[in-house]
Amino acid sequence: MGVLAMFNRLQINIFLGIILLAVSIYSLVIPHKQNSLICSDIDPKDCYPKSFVPTDQWQVVREGQEVPAGLDFSIDLEKGIKLAKLIEPEVHQTSSVNIKDTSEDTAAALKEAIKEAPKKVVSNYDSEDVEEDSDITALKMAVQGAETQIDVKDALVYITSTDQSDEVLKSSLDSLTDHSHNLKDGVLISQPQYFDRLVELATDKKHSIMVQEMSSRVIAQSLRHNPKALENVQITQVLPKFLAVLQDEDNSVLQKRILGVISSLVQSEVNVAIFKNFKGESILLDNFSKFKEDSKIRALEILEDVKKYNGLQKRSNEDDLLNSKIFKTIQDSLSNNEISDDHNLEKLFDKAVELKSENKHYKTDSQFLQWLSKQVEDRKLNKRDSDYNDELHKKLLEARHVVFGNPNALRKAFVDEL
Q: Any stretches that span the bilayer, and where are they (predicted)?
């Protein structure tokens, strides 16, 4: 009987060892088929492979990297970094099977091993999530493990501790970024004891650009389309801070994130009124020329949202005045060649066409007309270029005559294009 038990244990060890090896090899090899690079928005020179390549040594897992399953994971809370490496052979052996002397058949022993494996391999994995009938699936899940992530409440505690290192802040903010889309977590994040700290991290220049960027992103995501979270925010204290830092910000990423926060705050008639009291419209328009291209588009979207919340009795007069200023700002931006990307150029131009079509009395600047004529002529000469945008060319040509000039000259203009 003892020999039979030893033979059964040997069979089980070999069987599970083969499964573990196959799962590890499969999960490690497949992700490397596409190994493109990830480059930081803040530092374009900081690039690294999209797929994490494990070794038998602990390595830092960078933001956005795809991590293969079947690895050991760890997190350094002092530095706020995630680490991973290949599972050592001893781990496979000890985590796969630990069977007592028994006369049960192989299947029963395997089921018991699977039941225990998750507890030994992955401490934060809940074995109750696995269906009892899916033996092989359960074993695979236990072997693969899971990437360690800081709990939302722990992350909030970490960021409120002022003696935390920059790396711990980044790791905590990274976890909050994942949680902030959730409405319930958004309400928690918006609690004053946490939210005030996030605002300080986002607006105080003593913090790194990455910490400011991540904090702004968490704020915007937790408030957007989340009325309960927005109710927790003292907008009269928060909004002026972001409007102030926006005026002095030159970093393209931070500009966009700050505007994202402002956009998430301006979601009600009351908040729009506060935005106007703090000269929000003027700040966006006055700083429009220094905004990077994506931020220009975001600023226009905010101004459109503001108009939606204008009171009906005020809408016609206030909208007309605001639209007139927007039209002038767009003309200046285009004629000064502040836009190089065709997609962004088309968005701004479409808005100018819309405003002029609805308000014929708006003045068209001569400098803008010169820019428009040059755009049409230059694009006509560049028709053979690989990046030639025929649709935008036709749109510029048509608007040049129909919207901003003489509609009767359009037919001749199309003939000249042939």
A: 12-30
275 inside domain = no
- d(C-alpha 357, C-alpha 341), whole Å: 24
Q: Which residues pair with 47 in a beta bridge?
A: 39
d(CA 351, CA 286) in angstroms, rounded, equals 18
Burial class (CB in 10 A: 0-12, 13-18, 19+), 230: buried
CB atoms inside a 10 Å sphere around CB 80: 21
How many domains does one find in the chain? 2
Q: What is the pLDDT of residues 164-177, one digit of tens each?
A: 788 888 989 999 99
Domain endpoint, select from 99, 127, 144: 144
285 lies in some domain: no
Please say if the pLDDT value at position 350 is more than 70.
yes
pLDDT at 347 over 60: yes
Distance CA 225, CA 228 (A): 9
End-to-end alpha carbon distance in the chain: 95
> 139-162 burial by CB neighbour count: b if 16+ within 10 A, else e?
bbbbbbbeebbbebeebbebbeee
Q: pTM of the entire structure?
A: 0.64
Average pLDDT of the chain is 77
Look at residues 336, 339, 395, 345 and name the one whose alpha carbon lies nearest to residue 368: 336
On whether residue 63 sits in a domain, the answer given is yes
Q: What burial class does residue 70 get, using C-beta atoms within 10 Å of its C-beta: 0-12 exposed, 13-18 middle, 19+ buried?
A: buried
- Domain assignment of residue 384, yes or no: yes
Question: Of the residues 144, 176, 207, which one is the last residue of a structural domain?
Answer: 144
- Mind listing the pLDDT tens digit for each residue in 291-306? 999 999 999 999 999 9
> Cβ of 295: how many Cβ atoms within 10 Å?
24
The range of the structural domain enclosing residue 416 comes to 314-418
Per-residue confidence (pLDDT) for residue 106, from 0 to 100: 43
